[in-house]
């Protein structure tokens, strides 16, 4: 737009990729979280390594990292970014009924990595669902959200 605001609409009001070409490259980090809820016996099988499909936590971690690197291919109008770091942590929920997922992604670029972190967390959760659905079809993915970001023009932010 002519007033300098970033928008996903072109001059005719059609969806378009935002031009970030004039923005400076800065260090940016985002962390997203999600929880996959399951029966306690499903969680116990995962934590004991007794799942028929092997180490589902390691597979979900790798799937999340790989997904972060493919975000621009999955989300329309999302910029391809050089990811310098992507980490996915998977821990049993304190209530014993699920796995808490945290994905942290870093880049040095002209736009943030919130979408990459959200994609990593969601794909890690979906991978867990896929690998465990044979024993627990009632699992649910909940509370996918950005919990922190740093860098860029808008600065640092953390969820309350």
TrEMBL record:
The enzyme's E.C. designation:
4.6.1.17
Q: Where is the active site?
A: 130
Residues annotated as binding substrate:
77-79, 115-116
| Top-rank taxon, per record | Bacteria
Output one GO MF annotation.
cyclic pyranopterin monophosphate synthase activity
Q: What CDD domains would the database entry show?
A: MoaC_PE (cd01420)
Pathway given in the UniProt record:
Cofactor biosynthesis; molybdopterin biosynthesis
An example GO BP is: Mo-molybdopterin cofactor biosynthetic process
Database matches in Pfam families: MoaC (PF01967)
Reaction catalysed by this chain?
(8S)-3',8-cyclo-7,8-dihydroguanosine 5'-triphosphate = cyclic pyranopterin phosphate + diphosphate
List residues of the Molybdopterin cofactor biosynthesis C (MoaC) domain: 17-152
Q: Which InterPro entries match?
A: MoaC, MoaC_bact/euk, MoaC_sf, MoCo_biosynth_MoaA/MoaC, Mopterin_CF_biosynth-C_dom
The UniProt keywords, alphabetically, are: Lyase, Molybdenum cofactor biosynthesis
- Cited function: Catalyzes the conversion of (8S)-3',8-cyclo-7,8-dihydroguanosine 5'-triphosphate to cyclic pyranopterin monophosphate (cPMP).
- Subunit structure of this chain's protein: Homohexamer; trimer of dimers.
Family, as annotated: Belongs to the MoaC family.
This chain belongs to the protein called Cyclic pyranopterin monophosphate synthase
Species of provenance: Endobacter medicaginis
